[in-house]
Amino acid sequence: MRDYPIGVFDSGVGGLTVVREIMRQIPNENIVYFGDTARVPYGSKSKETIITFSKQITQFLRSKNVKAIVVACNTASALAVEVLQQENDIPIIGVVKPGAKTAALTTKNHKIGVIATEATVNSNIYDQYLRKMNDKIQVYSKACPLFVPLVEENWLYDSVTVEIAERYLSELMGYGIDTLVLGCTHYPLLWHTLQKVVGEQVQLVNPAFETASTLKQVLESKGLNRLNRKNEHKFYVSDGSEKFKAFANRILPCDVMETSDVNIEQY
Fold first, then answer.
1. What's the CATH number of domain 97-207, 3.40.1180.10, 1.10.10.60, 1.10.600.10, 3.40.50.1860?
2. DSSP character for 189?
3. pLDDT confidence band for 171 (50 / 70 / 90)
């Protein structure tokens, strides 16, 4: 199984931030990515719907003989990872725990902000993990639903994006946070804009980086790490393959030559 690929999925393009980190940290691994672009965003959907979508995508990825799956979506990580772990015999890794761990180690004043989708915020999953790690931590969460479509439109530095970020983050800044978790995999693509808004005194936490590190450790501990490098990454979406490919080529350290459409409903 060492030579089998890693499965990665997200509601759209945001999960590519996780793919980018995997390519940087464990470059020998091949990746099969699925972006559920036809049904994005996940953040406003019910828990039952998110679990159903996640099961369908997991079945699709397993049909590609993946050796592990990274749920590169905070919403699906918060609501579906435990179910997927119970139903599958390969490692299933979410993005929430690694990000929460880093935030807990980063904060100095124990005041942590979390920005995420509505579903992730309502799940209180970051709050639960952070308080388990340190009961002194105070967590202030804010749903930022407009960030996902702004990223999908590639309006990363637009003045409209800056204005929206200022409106979203002003409340969190009022609490005196010193650490901000980017609790949606789309959000690291807004890193420079968000850092500009909150100022250098606030440390941003990118769960994508920490998730790739966790994946590396899991693969090595189970003897699943690929020893030779011959990359053959594959990308699939549920809609808009050409638009996805253009976006992927802007942020990934490799050329995405082909992206295929998949009828995910059949899985």
1. 3.40.50.1860
2. G
3. very high
Nearest to 15 by CA among 46, 62, 57: 57
Q: What is the CA radius of gyration of the chain?
A: 17
Structural domain boundaries in the chain: 6-94+209-266, 97-207
Measured in degrees and rounded to the nearest 5, phi and psi for residue 182 equal: -85, 85
Q: Which of 95, 184, 237, 256 does the annotation list as catalytic?
A: 184
pTM of the predicted protein model: 0.90
pLDDT, averaged across the chain:
95
Please say if 184 is a catalytic residue.
yes
pLDDT in tens, 176-205: 999 999 999 889 999 999 999 999 999 999
Of 71, 73, 115, 202, the catalytic one is 73
Q: 144 an active-site residue?
A: no
